[in-house]
Design a protein that fits this description.
Shape: globular
Number of domains: 2
Order of helices and strands: HHEEEHHEEEEHHHEEEHHHHHH
Number of helices: 13
Radius of gyration: 18 Å
Strand content: 15-25%
Strand order of the largest sheet: 1-9-8
Distance between the termini: 18 Å
Structural class: alpha+beta
Helix content: 40-55%
Largest sheet: 3 strands, antiparallel
Length: 259
């Protein structure tokens, strides 16, 4: 993974992507260069935010696969209970966001997945949650940029705070595989002809999103389909989804870059 400098952030990020990123990230304290340091809690059990006070939690296709394996659900069941699948307001790209529910006293928004699957949450939490208090955006060339979120309302990171560099934090939260899988999704998106994609009918864009996020719901009700719907086969279903999405791009959109 190549990490870009903070000074290049606004120059290299597409404006529509940047606008959507800023809306989803919330208040930013500062942009980070590779050697910069920041304080964060080193207690993993405190790093999952049960009480969602900040921006929405965006999840990747790989996040969905890991979380539904942990909860033992099909992708359709997972989205019914825990997430929304929609299109970005500006980018029109598929976007999955965790739902939030109200607590008993209705004063706090809860993460229903963490609330109902507390024991599985630490190992299966999505990249968005792992990175917190950081957020990440990727430019067209695949360069990653990291920002430090405003922690003024975050109780978790006031507990047992230690100083990390960007590199030591990514190692501490075991982010490498999640970032690699997220980059595969990103590479698929940047390789396609974006202008032709935007011209697609809204129903076609939703179909593209289903291939990436709920691929097991698109297979027939035969033996193979039933196997792919098993939570244990979530990653195999994800690979099928990527294959379907690549074929969709090739047939209906076209590529602007070699893949």
């Amino acid at each position: 993974m190549k990490i870009g400098k903070a000074s290049e952030f606004f120059r290299n990020i597409d404006q529509s992507l940047l606008d959507e990123f800023m809306n989803l990230t919330g208040r930013i304290a500062r942009h980070l260069d590779p050697g910069d340091t920041f304080e964060a809690s080193d207690n993993p059990e405190r790093l999952c935010c049960l009480h969602l006070k900040g921006p929405p939690v965006v999840i990747s296709p790989y996040d969905v696969a890991r979380m539904r394996m942990a909860a033992y659900l099909t992708s359709k069941e997972f989205f019914t209970l825990y997430a929304h699948l929609a299109l970005g307001k500006k980018s029109q790209l598929p976007l999955a966001i965790l739902k939030s529910g109200l607590s008993v006293d209705s004063n706090r928004r809860l993460c229903p997945f963490q609330y109902e699957h507390e024991n599985e949450t630490i190992d299966s939490r999505p990249l968005h949650c792992r990175l917190h208090p950081l957020a990440r955006v990727v430019d067209q060339a695949g360069v990653s940029y990291f920002v430090l979120r405003d922690l003024s309302n975050c109780q978790a990171h006031r507990s047992r705070a230690k100083r990390f560099t960007l590199e030591t934090w990514l190692e501490f939260i075991d982010a490498e595989e999640y970032i690699d899988r997220a980059d595969r999704y990103h590479q698929l998106l940047v390789a396609m002809d974006y202008e032709k994609y935007k011209a697609l009918r809204r129903a076609e864009k939703h179909e593209f999103g289903e291939m990436l996020y709920t691929p097991d719901s698109l297979v027939p009700n035969d033996l193979i389909g039933n196997i792919l719907r098993l939570p244990e086969c979530a990653e195999a279903a994800l690979e099928l989804g990527y294959a379907m999405a690549e074929a969709f791009i090739a047939l209906r959109v076209g590529y602007c870059l070699e893949t």
